[in-house]
Input
Amino acid sequence: MQNKIHIRKGDTVFVNTGEYKGQQGRVLEVIRKSKKAIVEGINLVSKHTKPNAKSPQGGILKKEAPVHISNLMLVDPSTGHPTRIGKKLIKDRLVRYSKKSGEEIK
Output
């Protein structure tokens, strides 16, 4: 069974619900198995780390935690507002398009 997800890595998304409601960010990673996405600057958690080669000082680091994709909406590149996504065939190629403006999303 394939998990159909409407957002991809690099997309700009709008957060619908939760602590970060109303904010926008860029998708860094999509986790298809759990239907979640990691969004830049959204859902920050504190991670306690020991000193290591990567962070010689150690301490508390702020890191993005995954957000369920049902709480995210893609931002229409032409209008800058959140929009729903549709898929249609154009020249034997399946493309995503904005339901608000009807424009193709690359």
